[in-house]
Design brief:
single chain; alpha/beta; four-stranded antiparallel sheet
Length: about 220
């Protein structure tokens, strides 16, 4: 079953002097459970594609269906709720809240969606699996880059999303830590039956995925 279907996506940025075609007719399908690398030269539209697939941005033309739901048929509030419940995000710069400790950072998306109804056992399980339970009361500034990215992965998995979008998740990590993070993403996707799209410039990491999409 296809979890993602994107048809003829176009996204243009214009000014008085030039036009940038970030996406110019991109179509793709992703099957449930795939672990896919998205690769391409700098500036080719990889991040734009991920933002549109995740409902963070809208295309100028074309459509995206996630689990048979058309994102363009949702209003802004509906799209936010759908994204929160179905899609997890991992970014290159971690995007952790500096004023929250690890545990509260991980619980944050669940708190937004379900208030006090947080599955604390699931969060404990995630932090244990990612080697962060002992550091759950630490703040992001007290963690290494690899530990911050592990916390970001745990946060992305906290709502048990069907789809995980990772934009250069190893871009700020050394090669050894990068391999460990990819291993964690793959293990988590298998355990929680998730589909993963990962933007990467690292060809060796891309080769470890089920499929490579080149833009």
């Amino acid at each position: 079953m296809d979890i993602i279907k994107a048809m003829n996506l176009k996204k243009y940025y214009t000014s008085d002097t030039y036009e940038v075609r970030a996406l110019d007719g991109v179509s793709l399908t992703v099957e449930d459970g795939e672990f896919i690398a998205v690769v391409g030269t700098s500036g080719c539209g990889k991040t734009t594609l991920m933002n549109i697939l995740g409902g963070l941005d809208t295309p100028d033309f074309g459509g995206v269906w996630i689990r048979n739901t058309s994102l363009k048929d949702l209003n802004k509030e509906e799209r936010t709720i759908f994204r929160r419940r179905n899609i997890g995000f991992v970014f290159q710069n971690y995007s952790l809240m500096p004023v929250l400790n690890v545990y509260d950072n991980v619980a944050l998306p669940v708190t937004f969606d379900k208030g006090s109804h947080v599955d604390r056992e699931h969060i404990r399980e995630l932090l244990n699996e990612l080697g962060l339970w002992e550091k759950r009361k630490r703040y992001p500034s007290e963690l290494s880059g690899g530990q911050q990215q592990r916390a970001a992965i745990a946060r992305a998995l906290a709502n048990k999303p069907a789809l995980l979008l990772a934009d250069e998740p190893t871009g700020n990590l050394d090669s050894k830590t990068a391999v460990e993070v990819i291993g964690l993403l793959k293990a988590s996707s298998q355990k929680y039956h998730q589909t993963v799209l990962m933007v990467t410039h690292n060809e060796a990491l891309a080769q470890s995925c089920d499929r490579i999409i080149r833009i």
